[in-house]
Amino acid sequence: MADELVSIDIADAEEGIEGVTDTDESLESVADANEGRSSVRSEADGGIVAQLRLDHPNLFLRPTIRHAPAVTVEPDYWTSVEPGRTLVFVTVYGTAFDDFETGLETDPTITDPVLVDRYPDRRVYRVTRTDRATTFTAAITGVGGRLLELSSSRDGWQVQLRFADRDRLVAFNDYCRDRGISVTVDHLRVSDDGDEGVVALTPKQQKLLTVAYEEGYFDVPRGISQDELADRLDVSKSAVSQRLRRAIGELCSATLS
Asked: Signal peptide span per the entry (predicted)?
């Protein structure tokens, strides 16, 4: 099932990114041009940015995420404190913290959850990842990719990744397929420094920004609140907040960098 979804989605998405298969040749040309100036191999030109949704019953924190769909979870960082023991710090946005903590109590992918900080709109937790958790972050690095964003979705995890070429994206897809992790492609684009002003907004981000702009969210005073936007789009307030932040961040990155 996962393989079928990915094959269809990647094929469809690639209609809009002509020339992706020539990325390796572009990289070689850049390397040739830079020969003699630096011994550092470059993968900075070209490449693919992929917005994916990943799901598997045993993905890290997935049982808790399904139990508390009204919150948004973003891993801050993780570290191995001893062989076989990995601590993960996550920030949880929203208000349904009781649901999130109830989910933690029975989640087989983590143990020893601790609330380490709290704010009006978010909380920070530390958990220990168990060996029952299915993971994918190491595989991203293993195939030569880079993790740009990672946050929870109603169906597991949403990730934004950059790969130097299509083969590495396919290698990551193969890794997920072999482990039963379903992959849905939301968005693909060519990563090219020459494409200034091209913004990699997902369809959901585009829809949210369109509604927010048309209804006066950016006016002073505001014509619509985040709560009203959430009701209009039938999503949680935390999802609206995070989606707005990422979309505005993409806009700033494309126009100010």
From this structure: none
